[in-house]
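Suppose you are handed a protein chain with no further information: no name, no annotation, nothing but its sequence. What can you learn? This example shows the usual starting point.
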Amino acid sequence: MNVRALKRRATIFLALFIVGLVASGVTAIPLSREVTFLDRMVGEGAATQSWWPSLAAWISRVYRGVTETSREYPYIFYGTDWLAFGHIVIAISFLGPLCNPVKNIWVIESGMIACVLVIAWAMIFGPVRGIPFFWRLIDCSFGIVGIVPLYLAWRYTRQIIGLTAAGDE
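A reasonable first move is to predict its three-dimensional structure. Written in structure tokens, the prediction is:
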């Protein structure tokens, strides 16, 4: 495979990662509406309760917490606005590798490290915050899903480096 085809593949996977990062960030902004919808779909009283009661109970508990917090302390959600901002800023940092993956391979590598750290973060702070184990696994899935396109982009970038070092552009 030539350098151009490898760069195109790396770019596709980086673009997917950027889109996923932005999407997962901006969904933190309408949190109250999302949790209301989720509670109606899988919370207590929904069909989910019969086959996964602990999930239904957890979703309804989160719904009650978000609703009460939104009513009494809406400024707390300013933190989720900043969470969204952080996701967007991190996504912007991947524009460098999108344009030149070889020069910016370190950004791809730091993103892969961050994906691994998501798992550690969820497993360390989840119990501290009273997050059920099954929900921590869902949080861990963001790191697992995120590392796949980054790893593929990294692998294609390493192949580009190999080809350009050998003079096979």
